[in-house]
Amino acid sequence: MKVAAGSVALDTNILLYAQGAGAEGDSRHQRALACVSSLPLSRLVLPVQVLGEFHRALRRKFRFDAASALEAVNCWTSIYPTLDTTHLAFETALELCTDHPFSTWDALILAAAAEHRCAALLSEDMQHGFVWRGVCVVNPFAEPTHPRLAALLD
User: Fold this and answer.
1) Tens digit of pLDDT per residue, the chain (154 long)?
2) Range of the domain at 89
3) CATH code of residue 126
4) In a domain, 135, yes or no
5) Measuring CA to CA, how many Å separate 126 from each of 4, 6, 109?
6) In a domain, 3, yes or no
7) Which residues pair with 9 in a beta bridge?
8) What b/e string do you get for 76-114 counting C-beta neighbours within 10 Å, with b at 16 or more?
9) Are the beta carbons of 29 and 141 closer than 8 angstroms?
10) Which residues lie below 8 Å from residue 69, measured CB to CB, with a gap of 6+?
11) Bridge-partner residues for 122, per DSSP?
């Protein structure tokens, strides 16, 4: 799949907040929804690693039944393009883990975003402002709003 350069990838926690899983009425739910809805459809992408983690969290942490968790995943993927994980992204992720304190799975998400030339990865868990291979990790809940996110939302 061809992804527009300058796209924004979502990390699992942001997707869970946007879904409202465990955060209904929470300011993070509202902020995640605002970010997702403000970005053009063609600019927001979902790494497949995130979708796997999202499904697992819905099932285990939020006790969704299998059909409801699948429906949630399918709903998101029917709207937004996905970023496939390649063997090259996996190798790159392992190198990233060697140089920086990322888990293998977070590094795989960042590597996939970089491989697809994303401008930003929205994440609450990774280091806010960290830039790697052109991808800036942005915490959408941080104040003030990171300049890269502000530019993408304009």
Assistant:
1) 556 668 899 999 999 999 987 666 678 888 888 889 888 888 899 999 999 999 999 999 999 999 999 999 999 999 999 999 999 999 999 999 999 989 999 999 999 999 999 999 999 988 898 999 999 999 998 888 788 777 777 6
2) 8-153
3) 3.40.50.1010
4) yes
5) 23, 19, 11
6) no
7) 45, 121
8) beeebbbbebeeebeebbeebbeeeebeeebbbbbbbbb
9) no
10) 55, 58, 59
11) 10, 138
Kind and range of the H or E run holding 54: helix 48-60
Query: pTM of the prediction?
Result: 0.90
Would you state the structure tokens that stand for residue 68, as one six-digit string? 């409801």
User: Rounded distance, CA 32 to CA 93, Å?
Assistant: 26
Number of Cβ within a 10 Å radius of residue 9:
28
Indicate the number of domains in the chain: 1
Q: Quick one: DSSP state of residue 46?
A: E
